[in-house]
């Protein structure tokens, strides 16, 4: 055929390239080019009417409403409302034999309903503006039908005012710009795909490559023989293209595993409730593609989203399950949501998998084998162990490609965690989870792959993401055409499991990365939205306490029913809030309000569950005080405790206007009658509130020249008249902890103007804008006068608009001084931190992470060091030299840093996008300072940080509190922490508990777990509570013996003896 052409092509690369571009252009020459022929005849819809509502109504309810006539071009809104359209269609008879589409273009996100079921998502930004009514109109087909289109008044990425991440414009209006029927020319579409790919190959392979010229001249020839106005010329053109694409590559070709995906942020620039609909829109579209393309495989993460679709769109869910059976719809990830990888506690991370994997097992009959977290802002060094213990050995992300400073050196590697657990990790080398199947992306995936030669397989995730959308037919057409063409990698439509099996099969030469995967960007997310962070820490504590106290009640009371269902519900709310744009504070105000409501539910219902458990633990007539004191930590504690006064108020210091209102302190020592012979570390215990206090040293308090000294015999704290810490001495050794000539508790403000990602980023240059907040002399006042508790307080004007008050508290017997802080914060793009220059020198500082800790440098030697200028930590950080150190504890903060000898805790930010109101208003938080001798491990820093975060509970007891203090569990070494006690998931009615312990010092250690509960059987299990058949633990007189390696997490099932009643 080509031989019939008149003349050989001229040798002009540039004009030939542009000729091809113009032939497929949607902008130029559409009157005569191929693109202009994509659609044939068209006609308007027969009738269009609409109904507008602020609610997100179910279909059945929506279609009952009063629909009014509407026109193409009408506006509707405002933001977050929904406009339902009734679309009546009448397909012309002349279109028999043709493929007919409903063309629908709107700037709102649409979902087509047909016969009561969702059938297609329509989103302009996701390149879905066409609903296929029929592939081929047949005689017997009904040509009249009525559809509904549910249009949300938001775009794929919300409704930002002016820019994507700006706060939403509440008054935004939307439009339907097109609603018509049209004949779709499938043959034109195929040729367009071919030409675009040929153009991509010609450009992408470049002038050094002969295949590039073959592609270019093939495209040129196609244009020579293809007349857009004469479809009979198309087959010859198509055959020319096939001849090119069918020239195969060699055996050594790299293989791309193309997996369809649709990253849907569970809440971000839109509320949670909108995500429910985003899932339906995206997945129904994916399911349709599966129907048309049996080889198309789609990976879908986040159990929560599947649960939403199950509950709201049961018909769609049934189809999803069918396509799961066919191997096309593949659940991945194993977690409840794609959570943040830094901030959730170790236990919360375990619950992400426990809730996720159990959901996948229940709904699909199998668990996930890969952890899927493409879009999260860093990855804890404990994740490999948690994954391995949750049945997962593969890990996929791509976010480290966002590193601002250092390029991560691997795409396929083994990731080794804190305890030595290893998983096979893969970062799609194209650095995206939203590929579109272009040649450019395909080539990039190979050229950028840093493990070429070590492994010959890569992931290629395609489909619009973030706001949903997902893959399109065009993407699939491109990828199928590129399945095996010389000059390009092979492209295989594949599943994550197929990819990982291939990677595993050729893993001998892979490198290993040890420790955290730190993202050198988005480091402001450790601090933004302090109330969310506080809610997270609080609710993690509440659920811990509820589970422990309920477990004790279950063990002691025959009447008590463990609140398994309520706890699952509350955990799922907490896990939902740990989504990577919620707990990070990088969401809009609407989401913050929803998240705070979730925390409110957990707090109130958690409180009720604690009371119920306390009731079960108390029996008999009312006792003195009517209070039950519970220590929910596994070691003995002697602490000053604020007890409620009769009449409802509490005795200790509301902060702010009347700080240090010290009155009725109670002291509960839980040392009596735990386990008879336990000389060390009694445990999770319960006792009545009548302990009396006998102490040898009390906080003394002197005041000279406006300064205040607090001294409890363990530490001596000196505050200058402005509230700064001039001295902190460990009394026994006389050792000073504050750097010479410096002051601690120094508040500092920084300018905090990032380059773009406002709520996310704090840039390195903010450190150059440090401004210490000058103190006001004379504001320091004595609060509590001493006795059990000494305190001083002061006020500080941070700026003309923001002020701070603080009570500095030292309790008898306590090894740390606490700083109760209240801030009224009204700033724009400022960052507040507090600094403690330490009289300690070390090149490494230690930070608590999930189930352990790790070191990070205090210097800036290399680019990897200085890129960690702002890092995250959980409850404590420590700077130690041999024999001495200073620890900084906190009760709800996550951002931190140690530069040189200065420990710095990040307190508050003031970003304006995507939430213009972020962090404005009142905040309350506590941090504490603990100087110590020896190592932080031996000095008990870890336990102190737990104590600060888990105050003794004083629960109203309806009856007499147990007459004698009673301890349920204790552990023989301080290296091992009993983190969790809960009822086993597998037996919601039963008397089996799950205990989770971890090694916290970083040591190999044996330990005895002792319990006063009557145990019938003890067996090790994994984090999903599955029995380890070789893990039976003999019950010995001393309890149960457990062996730990550094930072190892162990779980066991304790089957309790049947109750005697
Ligand atoms: Zn995301």
UniProtKB/TrEMBL annotation:
SMART domains reported in the protein's UniProt record: Alpha-mann_mid (SM00872)
Catalytic function, reaction form: Hydrolysis of terminal, non-reducing alpha-D-mannose residues in alpha-D-mannosides
Keyword Metal-binding assigned: yes
GO biological process: mannose metabolic process; oligosaccharide catabolic process
Gene Ontology molecular function, alphabetical: alpha-mannosidase activity; carbohydrate binding; metal ion binding
Keyword Metal-binding on entry: yes
Alphabetical keyword list: Glycosidase, Hydrolase, Metal-binding
Domain Glycoside hydrolase family 38 central: from-to ranges: 520-599
Top-level EC class as recorded in UniProt: hydrolase
Pfam families recorded: Alpha-mann_mid, Ams1-like_1st, Glyco_hydro38C2, Glyco_hydro_38C, Glyco_hydro_38N
EC number of this enzyme: 3.2.1.24
Domain of life: Eukaryota
Family indicated by similarity: Belongs to the glycosyl hydrolase 38 family.
Protein name as catalogued: alpha-mannosidase
Organism: Erinaceus europaeus
Lineage: Eukaryota, Metazoa, Chordata, Craniata, Vertebrata
């Amino acid at each position: 055929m080509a031989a019939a052409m008149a003349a050989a092509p001229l040798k002009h690369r540039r004009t030939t390239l542009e000729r091809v571009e113009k032939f497929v252009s949607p902008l130029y020459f559409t009157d005569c080019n191929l693109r202009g022929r994509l659609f044939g005849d068209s006609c308007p819809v027969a009738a269009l009417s609409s109904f507008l509502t602020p609610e997100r109504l179910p279909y059945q309810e929506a279609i009952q409403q009063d629909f009014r006539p509407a026109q193409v071009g009408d506006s509707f809104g405002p933001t977050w409302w929904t406009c339902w359209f009734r679309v009546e269609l009448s397909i012309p008879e002349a279109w028999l034999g043709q493929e007919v589409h409903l063309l629908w273009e709107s700037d709102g996100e649409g979902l087509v309903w047909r016969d009561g079921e969702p059938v297609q998502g329509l989103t302009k930004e996701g390149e879905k503006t066409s609903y296929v009514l029929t592939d081929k109109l047949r005689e017997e087909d009904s040509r009249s039908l009525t559809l509904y289109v549910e249009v949300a008044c938001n775009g794929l990425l919300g409704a930002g005012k002016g820019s994507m991440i700006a706060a939403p414009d509440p008054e935004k209006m939307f439009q339907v710009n097109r609603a018509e029927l049209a004949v779709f020319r499938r043959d034109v579409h195929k040729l367009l795909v071919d030409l675009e790919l040929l153009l991509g190959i010609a450009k992408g392979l470049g002038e050094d490559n002969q295949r590039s010229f073959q592609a270019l001249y093939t495209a040129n020839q196609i244009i020579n023989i293809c007349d857009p106005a004469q479809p009979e010329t198309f087959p010859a053109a198509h055959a020319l293209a096939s001849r090119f694409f069918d020239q195969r590559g060699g055996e050594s070709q790299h293989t791309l595993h193309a997996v369809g995906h649709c990253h849907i942020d569970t809440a971000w620039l839109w509320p949670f409730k909108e995500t429910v609909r985003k899932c339906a829109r995206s997945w129904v579209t994916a399911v349709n593609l599966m129907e048309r393309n049996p080889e198309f495989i789609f990976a879908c993460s986040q159990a929560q989203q599947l649960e939403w679709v199950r509950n709201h769109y049961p018909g769609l869910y049934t189809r999803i399950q069918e396509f799961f059976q066919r191997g096309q719809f593949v659940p991945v990830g194993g977690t409840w949501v794609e959570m943040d990888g830094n901030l959730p506690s170790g236990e919360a991370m375990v619950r992400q998998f426990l809730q996720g994997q159990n959901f996948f097992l229940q709904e699909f009959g199998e668990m996930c084998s890969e952890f899927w977290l493409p879009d999260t802002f860093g990855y804890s060094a404990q994740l490999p162990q948690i994954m391995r213990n949750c049945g997962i050995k593969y890990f996929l992300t791509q976010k480290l490609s966002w590193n601002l400073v250092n390029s991560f050196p691997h795409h396929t590697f083994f990731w080794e965690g804190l305890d030595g657990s290893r998983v096979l990790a893969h970062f799609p080398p194209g650095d995206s989870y939203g590929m579109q199947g272009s040649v450019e992306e395909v080539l990039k995936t190979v050229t950028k792959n840093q493990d070429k030669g070590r492994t010959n397989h890569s992931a290629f995730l395609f489909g619009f993401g973030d706001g949903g959308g997902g893959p399109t037919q065009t993407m699939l057409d491109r990828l199928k055409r590129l399945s095996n063409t010389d000059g390009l990698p092979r492209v295989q439509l594949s599943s994550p499991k197929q990819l990982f099996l291939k990677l595993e099969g050729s893993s001998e030469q892979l490198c290993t990365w040890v420790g955290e995967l730190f993202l050198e960007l988005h480091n402001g997310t450790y601090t933004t939205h302090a109330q969310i962070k506080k809610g997270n820490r609080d609710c993690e504590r509440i659920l811990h306490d509820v589970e422990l106290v309920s477990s004790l009640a279950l063990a002691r009371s025959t009447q008590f029913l463990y609140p398994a269902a309520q706890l699952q519900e509350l955990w799922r709310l907490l896990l939902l809030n740990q989504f990577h744009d919620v707990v990070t504070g990088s969401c809009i105000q609407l989401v913050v309000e929803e998240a705070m409501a979730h925390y409110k539910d957990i707090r109130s219902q958690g409180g009720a569950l604690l009371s119920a458990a306390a009731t079960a633990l108390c029996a008999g007539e009312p006792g003195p005080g009517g209070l039950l004191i519970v220590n929910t930590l596994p070691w003995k504690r002697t602490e000053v405790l604020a007890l409620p006064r009769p009449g409802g108020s509490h005795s200790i210091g509301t902060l702010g206007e009347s700080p240090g209102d010290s009155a009725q302190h109670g002291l509960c020592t839980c040392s009596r009658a735990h386990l008879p012979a336990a000389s060390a570390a009694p445990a999770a215990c319960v006792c009545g509130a009548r302990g009396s206090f006998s102490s040898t040293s009390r906080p003394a308090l002197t005041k000279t020249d406006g300064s205040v000294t607090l001294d409890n015999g363990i530490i001596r704290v000196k505050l200058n008249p402005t509230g700064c810490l001039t001295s902190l001495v460990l009394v026994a050794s006389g050792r000073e902890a504050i750097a010479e000539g410096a002051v601690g508790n120094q508040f500092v403000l920084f300018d905090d103007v990032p380059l773009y990602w406002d709520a996310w980023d704090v840039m390195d240059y903010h450190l150059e804008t440090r401004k210490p907040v000058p103190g006001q002399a004379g504001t320091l006042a004595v609060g509590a006068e001493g006795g059990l508790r000494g305190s001083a307080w002061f006020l500080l004007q941070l700026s003309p608009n923001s002020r701070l008050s603080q009570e500095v508290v030292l309790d008898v017997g306590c090894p740390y001084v606490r700083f109760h802080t209240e801030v009224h914060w009204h700033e724009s793009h400022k960052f507040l931190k507090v600094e403690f220059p330490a009289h300690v020198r070390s090149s490494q500082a230690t930070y608590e992470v999930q189930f352990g800790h790790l070191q990070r440098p205090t210097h800036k030697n290399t680019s990897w060091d200085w890129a960690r200028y702002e890092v995250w930590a959980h409850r404590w950080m420590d700077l130690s030299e041999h024999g001495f150190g200073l620890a900084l504890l906190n009760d709800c903060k996550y951002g931190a840093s140690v530069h040189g000898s200065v420990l710095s805790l990040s307190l508050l930010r003031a970003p304006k996008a995507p939430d213009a109101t972020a962090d404005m208003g009142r905040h309350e938080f506590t941090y504490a300072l603990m100087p110590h001798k020896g190592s932080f491990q031996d000095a008990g820093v870890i336990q102190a940080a737990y104590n600060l975060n888990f105050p003794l509970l004083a629960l109203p007891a309806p009856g007499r509190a147990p007459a004698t203090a009673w301890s349920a569990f204790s552990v023989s070494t301080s290296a091992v922490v009993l983190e969790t006690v809960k009822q086993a998931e597998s037996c919601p009615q039963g008397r089996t508990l799950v205990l989770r312990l971890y090694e916290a010092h970083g040591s190999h250690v044996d330990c005895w777990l002792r319990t006063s509960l009557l145990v019938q059987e003890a067996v090790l299990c994994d984090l999903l509570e599955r029995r380890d058949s070789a893990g039976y633990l003999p019950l010995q007189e001393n309890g149960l013996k457990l062996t730990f390696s550094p930072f190892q997490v162990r779980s066991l099932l304790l089957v309790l003896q049947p109750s005697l009643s």
